[in-house]
Specification:
With about 140 residues, the chain is mostly helical. Helix content is about 65%, strand content about 0%. The protein has four helices and no strands. Helix 1 (about 20-55) packs antiparallel against helix 2 (about 60-95). The chain is flat, with a radius of gyration of 20 Å.
């Protein structure tokens, strides 16, 4: 049986408390779940809009413009689908106890970074190293 954690609506994780305590985990679980639900809701709206919005547009330029808009919307939704996968992965890490720790170093990821990017898997330092390494290899 899981204990229900009660969070004040103004609660934000603080460095003054133990890292990834129950309150912090619940805070990030809710943040990730709300983000995921928001994306899924937007996807439903897009699908419904595309299904009901299909129309025969006689003007070629207008039709091309609408098709471009649809293609852009679909690309955006595809990126969001990948984001949902990352959110689900972060939720699994909360469940297995590895959330908030850098995959590379095992060190805690700063609360500010997690609050800004709750799907982060690397500390800021490890992310910067990774990006520098990527740039070097890309320039080859």
């Amino acid at each position: 049986m899981k204990l229900e954690i009660v969070l004040d609506k103004n609660y934000t994780p603080s460095d003054d408390e133990p890292f990834m305590n129950d309150r912090q985990l619940e805070y990030f679980r809710r943040k990730l779940t709300n983000w995921k639900n928001s994306i899924l809701e937007g996807n439903r709206d897009t699908i419904e809009g595309m299904q009901t919005g299909t129309r025969n547009i006689p003007d070629v330029a207008d039709r091309a413009s609408e098709e471009t808009d649809r293609a852009l919307e679909l690309r955006t939704r595809d990126r969001e689908r990948k984001l949902v996968s990352k959110i689900e992965s972060a939720l699994r890490r909360i469940e297995d106890g590895s959330y908030g720790y850098c995959e590379e170093t095992g060190e805690p990821i700063s609360l500010k970074r997690l609050d800004a990017r709750p799907i982060a898997t690397l500390s800021l330092e490890a992310q910067e190293r990774h990006e520098r390494k990527e740039r070097v290899h890309r320039d080859d």
